[in-house]
Every structure is written in C-alpha cells, then in structure tokens.
Amino acid sequence: MDATAKKPRRLRRWLLWTAIVVTVAIVVFVLSIPFLLTHIPIPPLEFDLSPYLKGKAAELVTCKKATANVKIKRDRTEGFRIHAKGQLLDWPYSASAHVRFGFIRADGNLALMLDDTDWKAYVDFGARAARNWHFTANVPETHVTQDNAILASILTKAMPPAISNLVFSGKFKLDAGGDCTPKRPVPAWTVRGTLADFDADLEVGGKPARIDGLRVRFGADGIADHRDIAPLFPRANAVEFAGFTLSNAFASVRATERSYLVTEAGADCCGGELKLYSLFLDPEKLTAGATILVDGVDAGEVLSRISAFRGDASGRLHGKLPFFLKDGKTLRLKNAYLFSKPGETGTVRVMDAAPILDNLERGGVDEDTRDNLEKALANLDYKVLKVELKRGKDAEDSSLGFKLEGTATHGNTTVPVNLDVTFHGDLDQLINTGMKLRRKTR
To answer: E strand or H helix at 65, and its extent?
Structure first.
C-alpha cells in the first residue's frame, strides 16, 4: 500500500481520537462543574431590573436593580446548598436554595425572605434545557398591616393625595407557576392571589371612611409577550363614607388595555339597594362618570341628609343618582332625583319647619298659609314624595326641590296638603354629605 492510501486512514484515526479526547474533556468539565463551584469564589452579582419596571411600577421603587452575594456548599446528601444575601429593588433579602445537578439537568427549591418582614416566598424548579423548564412558587398566607416595611414604602409613593390616615389589616396569599416545553417553546405563566379579612380606617378628602371584611381574588396569565388580567370580584361586608353605610357591597371588574370596566356593582344602603353598571375608570386620569340606580331606600334616611328637613319619615324611595369623578380630586353628584312609586305611601313628621317656612316666606306665601302648613307637616301621610337635585354651573347655583302630596290630620280634621318648595345654594349646604375629595398639598 503506497503512502497516498495511508494518509486518509491516518486522518480518520486522528479525527476519531480528537473527537474522543474532546468528548471526554467536555464530560469531565461538566461533571467537575459542581465541584469547582464550591472552590471558586463567586464575585458579587448585580442585575438591572429597570427594563421590567415600566409606568407606575417604576415610580414605586427608588432602586431598580437586584444584587446577590452567593456562597455554595456541598450538601451532605445530594446536590448543593446555595446561600445568598443582597438587595431586591429597595429591600434587603436572604435566600437559601437546594440544587441538584445532572449531566443535562438541574432541579431544586428556593426559599426567599425579605429581611425584617414576614414576607416569604418558596419556589420549586427544574430545567432540562433553555426551552424545557418549569417552576411553581407561593407566598404563604401573610398578615399585612400599614406598619409592614414593604407596604409602608410602597404606600408612601402610591397613595392618592386624597387618602390619608390609612390604618388596615388583612391576610394576603399568592401562588404562581410557569413552564416552557419543547412542544411549546415559549414561556407561559400564571399568577393567582387573594386578599381576605381586610379591614381599613382612612380619611378620603378629609372625611372619615371605613371598610370591613373586604375580600378579593386577583390574578394574571401570560404566554410569550401576551398578558391577560383575570376578572376581579371584590366583596365587602360594609363600606362607610360620607355618613352612608353600604353593606354586602360587591363589584365585577374587568381590565382593558388602558382602563378598568366595572360591569356591575351594588350594595345594600338605607334599607334599600344601590346598583351601578358599565363604569369605565382610567387609572391614569382617575376620571369617570356613571349613574347609581336606587331601589327602595328608606325615606327617613334620605330626608335626614337634606339640611332643610328636620324630622322623621317612613316609606320607600326610588330613583337615579348620576355622579362624576374628575381627576381623582372631586366627586360630584349631578342632576338626580328620588321619588315614591304610585301606590306606595308613607308618613312625614316635621319637628322644625322653620327652614321650609322661611323659604316660602321669601317666595311670597302669607303668614296664615305658613302657619297652617306648619301644623300639617307635623303629622302628614303622603302619597307623593319627590326629591330632585339640580346642579348649576357653579356649586352655589345648585337647587334642591322637595315635593309632598297627601293629607294631614289634626284632631278630628283631615285636610289635603300639596307642598312644592325649592331650596337654592351650595350643594354641600343643601345636602349633609362631604362629597369633595380635594387634593391635599404635601
């Protein structure tokens, strides 16, 4: 055999041995990585998180990075123990992980704790390749209050200026999971959380408010760059504001790209029921308007809100209360009305008719008529009761109409009564509610 025939054979042998040596070297290197990790010092790590913090989320934190000082030790049983300390955004943390390595795999679990708080998270994970991994995570039920260091920091930056003196407590829980598979080589994830037994006292525009027994589930799902926010169904045992108490309050909320749609909301109030439909709320502008439908509220509760009415009443009222929230600063009632349905009756007992009589005097009603009306209003059975609010261009131009039709009994005498009177002035003077949420200066 000549030298020319031997050259390809030598080349093949050389390539075979080279491949064997390279393969063995790779195997040795891979197998030695876990051992090298425990002997090679790992420098401090730093990750920039600003690309993932956008819009309002970026304003809630001062530091937009994560740091880690990592130590790795060989576990007595199998795998490695990894300990890390550092800072996650604005908060220091400690973490401990148990990781097991294979030739082409890694899996383990992680415990993360934010220092000096009750916040803890636990993660289980596994990976076979860059596009073949999975994880599950959870934050166990945690008691939260306004004194929590994490929440206090966030609330300082996120609290609307109209809200102050917030004191609250509740229970928070979170579960999450995600994976990427060879059949679906893009990340998919899901997050579900609950807030339960939430009670709060606060001031809104300087007016006291309270929430009792709020509970809500929330969540989101994503795949690749697409994200869907799960509908919200908050419930509360009671909500108190501006002297009103709403019990058994509920809402159905859906998120759109730029706003939230309250498809339905309702509550029991003043012995009746309030309902609201199709309210769009832009969280950036905090401007919205809608109409509250009123069904069967107690007439005495309603009339007690009218500054000119000083007495008692019974019966049921129905109607509409349109409102408008502007820039998160002012909550205004628009033209509204409440009335008794035909066939429904009630009573009115006016103990001090002076505001009504004074208004009639300015309208030219003579003294004898006013005296007779004062006696009639002291004991009146009505068949028509209507309250109508009309807002002027300026707050001082508002008017409040008060209409009564029925009969009054004094001794053995029963006489018909027809009262139609309108009061003018500032809305806050006409109605005993504090509805203005004025923005405070810091």
So the answer is: strand 65-74
Structure token digits, residue 259: 């706003």
Tell me what pLDDT residue 167 has.
92
Residues ≥6 apart with Cβ < 8 Å to 36:
none
Rounded CA separation 55/107 (Å): 35
Query: Count of H helices and E strands in the chain?
Result: 7, 24
Whole-number Å distance between alpha carbons of 280 and 290: 8
Separation between Cα atoms, residue 338 and residue 295, nearest integer Å: 9
Counting Cβ atoms within 10 Å, is residue 4 exposed (0-12), middle (13-18) or buried (19+)?
exposed
Is the separation of the CB atoms in 297 and 319 below 8 Å? no
Neighbour tally for 325: CB within 10 Å: 18
Determine the straight-line distance between the first and last CA of the chain, rounded to whole angstroms.
Answer: 97
Task: Give per-residue pLDDT as tens, 259-292.
Answer: 788 999 999 998 999 999 888 877 677 677 888 9
Q: How far apart are CA 403 and CA 412, in angstroms?
A: 25
Q: Are 108 and 79 in contact (CB under 8 A)?
A: yes
Kindly list the distances between the CA atom of residue 227 and the CA atoms of 56, 187, 230, in Å, as whole numbers in the listed order: 17, 12, 10
Burial class (CB in 10 A: 0-12, 13-18, 19+), 370: middle
Low-confidence stretches of the chain (pLDDT < 50) are 1, 434-442
- For residue 232, give the amino acid letter: L
Which pLDDT score is estimated for 8?
Answer: 59
Entry pTM: 0.76
Region of residue 213 (left: phi > 0; alpha: psi -120 to 50; beta: else): left
SS3 86: strand
d(CA 424, CA 356): 12
Task: Tally the residues of the chain.
Answer: 442
| Helical H segments across 38-185, by residue range | 56-59, 149-158
Residue type at position 365:
V
Residues 123-141 pLDDT 10s: 998 988 888 889 999 999 9
Beta-bridge mates of residue 409: 414
The reported pLDDT for the residue numbered 437 is 38
